[in-house]
């Protein structure tokens, strides 16, 4: 994921479907200089960690 898209997702009030190595996550903060993001898994919000942006993927929302 690129820096700009990660920042858009982090600042958006709408929850995006973002995965880190296949695990649904929430992006808290994006560090533009180091190209990393502070994230936590949706099922483990107490376990925050810093990951490289390349490890994040955005899944398309299914339209009903």
UniProtKB/TrEMBL annotation:
Annotated GO biological process: asexual sporulation; sporulation resulting in formation of a cellular spore
Protein name: H-type small acid-soluble spore protein
Organism of derivation: Paenibacillus mangrovi
Location of this chain's protein in the cell: Spore core
Alphabetical list of InterPro entries matching this protein: SASP_SspH
Coiled coil (residue ranges): none
Stated family: Belongs to the SspH family.
Transmembrane segments: none
């Amino acid at each position: 994921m690129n820096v700009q898209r990660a920042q858009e997702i982090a600042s958006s009030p709408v929850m995006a479907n973002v995965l880190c190595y296949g695990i649904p996550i929430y992006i808290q903060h994006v560090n533009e200089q180091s190209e990393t993001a502070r994230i936590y898994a949706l099922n483990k919000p107490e376990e925050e960690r810093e990951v490289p942006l390349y490890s994040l993927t955005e899944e398309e929302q299914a339209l009903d």
